[in-house]
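Lay summary. Proteins are chains of building blocks that fold into shapes, and those shapes determine what they do. In this project we predict the shape from the chain. Here is one chain we studied, written as its sequence of building blocks.
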Amino acid sequence: MEPREPVVIEDTAPLHQEIRRQLLRIQELEREVFELQGRSLQKECSFSPELICLMRDGRVRRPAEILRELGLSPGPETLSALSAQLHRLQDLHVVEERQNGWKWL
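And here is the predicted shape, written in a compact code that computers can read:
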């Protein structure tokens, strides 16, 4: 058997310190993302109370019917705002879009 070269063990302390530093930075960034998502959700959660009261009866309604029952004109901006609110409510799993309209769950 031939003699082996000695194994050189480098000081790994600086690498461990760098890993700890990077992990702390990741935790800090995750906290920041969580806070920003919370703020974003707070801004997006301003729903029309009238829309929620109307939808909670469980009937399936088309957007035009919803606007009519809310006493709103069916213009493109109004329809777009209604659609945005309905989709946000769908993201929260309280309404669902069906083939024949929207329904409270």
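What the prediction tells us: The chain has four helices and two strands.
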